[in-house]
Amino acid sequence: MSTKASGMTTGVTASGRDPVTGYVSDERRRMGAWLIRLSTLALAALILMQSLHAAGMISFGFTNWQPVLIAYTLWGAALCAGNVMRDGEAGWRALFVLPAILFTIALVIFPTIFGFVIAFSDWNLQSVTGRRFNGLDNLRQLWADPYFWNALGNMVFYVLSVLVQYVIAFGLALLLNQDIRARKFFRVAFLLPFMLSPVAVGWMIGKSMLEYRFGPVTRLLRTLGWDEPTLLTTPWLAKTTIAAMDAWVWIPFMMILILAGLQALPKEVQEAAKVDGATGWQGFWQVTFPLMLPVSITTIVLRIIFQLKLADIVITTTSGGPGGATDTVSSFIFREYKDRSNVGYGTMIAEVYLILIIVFVALLLWGTNRFMQRHRY
Amino acid sequence: MKVELYNTLSRRSVLKGAVAASALGAAGSVGLPVRIASAAEDVRAQILAIPGVGKGQPTDADWQKVGALCLEPTKANVKEGEFKGVELSFMGLNNQNVHNVLFRGLSKAWADYTGATINWIDLAQADYNARLQQAIATGTVDFDVIEMGAPFEGDVCGKGLASEMPDWVKTQIDMDDYVGYLKAPVGTWEGKTYRISCDGDCHNFNYRSDVFADAGLAEEWKKAGGEGDWGVPKTWQQVNAYTKFLKGKQLNGQDLYGYLDPCKGWGGFAFYFLGSRATAYAKHPDDKAWLFDADTMKPRVNNPAWVRAIQDVLDSLPFEPADQLNADPGTTGFQQFLAGTGTMLSWWGDIGSNVKTNDSSVIGDVTAFDILPGSDDVYNAGTGAWDKLASGPNYAPNMAYIGWGIYVMARVDSDPVKQKAAWSLAAHLGGKDISLWMAAYPSGFQPYRNSHFNVAEWTAAGYDEAFIKSYLDSEANSYNHPNAAIEPRIPGIFQYYSVAEDELAKIYAGQMSAQDGANAIAAAWEKITDQIGRDNQIKLYKASLGM
Question: B532 and A212 in contact by Cβ < 8 A?
Fold first, then answer.
């Protein structure tokens, strides 16, 4: 809305007072301020009471924290209403972001902070003592945990496999960018694996098609002369098989992003290269590929972020075996939580892994950004 | 066949039996008991004929018929429509398309008669422990009835989460019929009874009778210089020797393999299979404990007995199928043994109840059973020496998991109608007659009542007498064995098993020696004991061993 059209002006006057709020009466502003203060006080009192109750210091309180969550929601509503009453138009403007901020605090920031509290706890669900603060013990245990380091080492392999996936995805995208027969059909058909749940892929391919005795793939391999196709029991082969299954699911995702990039390339540049006598390979390597680098890097970075969370196919197909050869950090965390109810240590692994991912992705983005700037892409 | 038609037929036949019995009763003063016994026997015979052994795998229609025929005990305690409007949540497994899947059909007639509705929470075996522990720890028990194993009683009954069994239920299900080892203290906590048993678990030894009866193999065994005569192994030493011998041999054109070890984790449940190899070495007749030292909870898993069992697996693996490292117990039991791969297998009684009734089984006529093999010597944890018993090899059947039971949660106690409904449902599914059918057909449950060991009933259902006698003897002799290895009912038992599975996977993959791996398991177990609370674990471990 134009401020002129609404008859209002913006900017701060010489007195330092925003003229937008000038339309709010003092009484209304006071009421808004009191609404915010009282609701905040009530919420704080409720949290304090429930905290003391949970700590066993007072006898009265709620059986669980659900009423506090409801109180937080009501406080959020009161905060929004109080802002509007107190600040007028500026309060209305705040409504565009305030609910989103409160939502993010409740569902992202608070759980992350609470996660750190749990991560520094000795909390086994079956322990008679319940949760106990144990300082840096979980961190020390993590540092000396061979399962974690093994899984992290496997993650390096899985992340590197993204480069292979990228090459295949690029090839397929180039193919689908040509005027081939039934192009639309192939575009949809190539996308199908991506639409499947990785858990279903784990069962359909890992547990059925690759089954050692009756799986069609292993039978075919036997027919071709491989007597014992131990795809999931020889460690390096099992890791490669998992990576291949994962690639089958995710290559379509990379392919579709690259295809979108290829279709956005100006045709004139390629035509000019042809006129200049460039061969097909030169046209690709010296024109198409460099122009596609920004899209390629975005695709690879996104794919790596997904890859770092690999777990479902591993859990359903090998449970991390043989001997941890296919284990991932996420599937290891899954076992700590699920089979051992070891919430404190499991959360510490998850938080440390989160930090590692953030640092890794930040470095990756920084590095690629510098690379792009240096080469003026 | 339509269930309604079947019901009409069944009722008619029941009535015919009752009329005949009444006529008999009129001639004497014992008429009523005679009539009841006749009707009950009639029901047992009828349900065992559904669908009949060798007539394909039972379907949902079959389950519904069985459930309807076994409704009389419920009718004696509950009026028609008494639970109208009551909604119950039942949490259980969906393994191999049985357990909860089966319960749905079996309880349909009960729900129709009582008016209650049942919501089913289905879990895969590997997810069961986590789901249960999270519900307990977070105070979000969202089920009224649960199918649960005795090892979890410490977690559930010990925390006051279960409802105490009313006396009318004990009468309805005839608890005295349980085999000895399933009677108290199993199913009880601090003197109160909480469990309706619907299963009686132990690992037995399943083997291919055709392989051990083959004259050609016997001759080859002799030529190869094998020790003793070719025949069913009685000790693990023989099992290991046969496993090595059978690699590369064939019978009727099919490759032969010996013993099948599951090497892949199964949410903690795969550890039982190492246990079955270890009990003969580790469970000394003079010592009730075999997994931990009873006074300290010091793990025994790294003592020479357990290490020897792990080493046996390592030595056997090169002679087992090439994908054994990725085989969990579900694979060894159902995809390998029932499908004709492997000659020897330790498993729960499911193999016996599936071998002739599961559509995927190809070994129905060539399977026999025994208690778990013994050992020529047994480790004495007290003296640290290997003893040779005067009585011969040491046998120690592994009472793995102590069977599934049905438990009602305390959350229904505040509503008397709901409480009665929950216990009535549990009593229906754990009833005496229905349990016979579940023991005889694929259900996930094995025989656990004295009345299940009546061979005549099984042969009338179509079982071959020699086969069923072999199966039932393997079960009964395991349950009643004086040196049976009883599983501890202590909180967190599956944490111990789960962490062991991870270490065993590394050992089996050749990343560490049996001793080093066993030491790592022991260290992890010590940590879990400290985390859960050592004193409490010692107290509960001793109680579970009856010490």
Answer: no
